[in-house]
Specification:
Layout (H helix, E strand, L loop, with lengths): L4 E7 L3 H12 L3 E8 L6 H14 L7 E2 L14 H4 L20 H10 L6 E4 L4 H9 L2 H4 L3 E5 L15 H5 L1 H8 L5 E4 L1 H4 L3 E3 H5 L6 H16 L5 E3 L1 H10 L4 E10 L10 E16 L1 H12 L3
Parallel strand pairs: 1-2, 1-4, 2-3, 4-5, 5-6, 6-10
Antiparallel strand pairs: 7-8, 9-10
The structure holds beta-D-ribofuranose and calcium ion.
The site of calcium ion has 7 residues, from loops.
Length: 302
């Protein structure tokens, strides 16, 4: 029997967040302990609604959602309606019947990470605000995580918000800096890794699935292409982070230390190497055929 992975997903859904969450739901080896939300792609209220709506659409309203940070540690979130659509998902899902749990994200994360149930894997798919607040307020909790996988940063590759910065780190560079300088064993999946797993319009629109989760995933992915005829390819950023949490061997990695630019200016949110080897495990070469094999298996794509 494969060992169950207990997973917590910190997220700002987001089309690619939604696809990553659906991957986790489709993976029999994963037990999702909960989702924690953060503003980023969309404002917090919308991110929380999207998380709840997605779970409902997937008939998984049993999974708790805890609401997190509506603002970064400094400034405001950038939001990305041009990419994810005004509501954050490429199509509108029915309003959720359930609300989030009473506890906020930081308390939820603390309880789940330090609870009796043992070691949980934390996958962070949005700005790192919730994780940074947890580190500041209850530093012991993240040390209990079995693994922390972060999607963010652009190391030695162009950014996607500014020439230097990736969206999640740009949204809350102070939080990214706190988390990356924590010396915690973090696996980082940056834009250079994500750009190795893309799907073309033609390939994406040709896919079919016989499973409910697969069809929901395709609604998101194909809906994203349908929104704009000029869209030629989709990068699987958050889904790659999820795949690496599930199967680290689909990519090689190197150990480094990083600085995150926190001063206003050209380098805000930028990631630069400070030398190595360090504590951060940076994803390097991705075996994209293994990623797509996993993706196809989870959603029974044909
Ligand atoms: C990251 O930014 C967001 O728009 C995506 O959801 C992903 O987490 C990619 O830079
Ligand atoms: Ca995201």
């Amino acid at each position: 029997m494969t060992q169950q992975i207990q997973l917590i997903i910190d997220t700002d859904p987001g089309v690619d967040d939604a696809i990553a969450i659906l991957m986790a739901m489709a993976a029999s080896e994963i037990e999702i302990l909960g989702l924690t939300t953060v503003g980023g792609n969309v404002p917090l209220a919308r991110a929380t609604r999207n998380a709840l709506s997605l779970l409902q659409a997937a008939s998984r309203s049993d999974i708790p959602v805890a609401k997190g940070a509506s603002r970064p540690l400094r400034g405001k979130f950038a939001y990305a309606p041009h990419f994810h659509g005004p509501g954050g998902l490429s199509q509108r899902l029915p309003d959720p019947a359930n609300g989030p749990v009473e506890d906020g994200a930081v308390k939820f994360l603390y309880d789940q990470l330090t609870g009796e149930r043992g070691e949980a894997v934390l996958v962070a798919l949005g700005p790192l605000t919730n994780l940074a607040v947890l580190l500041r307020e209850r530093p012991i909790a993240l040390e209990q995580a079995k693994q922390i996988v972060v999607m963010g940063g652009a190391v030695n590759t162009p950014g996607n918000v500014t020439p230097e910065a990736e969206f999640n780190f740009y949204c809350d560079p102070v939080a990214a800096d706190i988390v990356l300088s924590s010396r915690l064993p973090i696996t980082m999946v940056d834009l250079a890794a994500c750009r190795q797993v893309k799907i073309s319009r033609e390939q994406a629109l040709g896919l079919k699935s016989a499973t409910p989760l697969g069809r929901l995933m395709l609604d998101m992915l194909q809906g994203w292409f349908h929104r704009e005829a000029s869209r030629e390819e989709f990068e699987f950023c958050d889904p790659l982070a999820m795949a690496i949490a599930l199967h680290p061997a689909i990519a090689t990695a190197t150990k480094i230390d990083l600085d995150v630019g926190i001063e206003k200016g050209e380098l805000l949110g930028a990631t630069s190497e400070t030398g190595g080897p360090g504590e951060i495990t940076l994803t390097q070469d991705v075996d994209s055929s293994r990623f797509f094999a996993l993706f196809g298996r989870l959603f029974e794509l044909r």
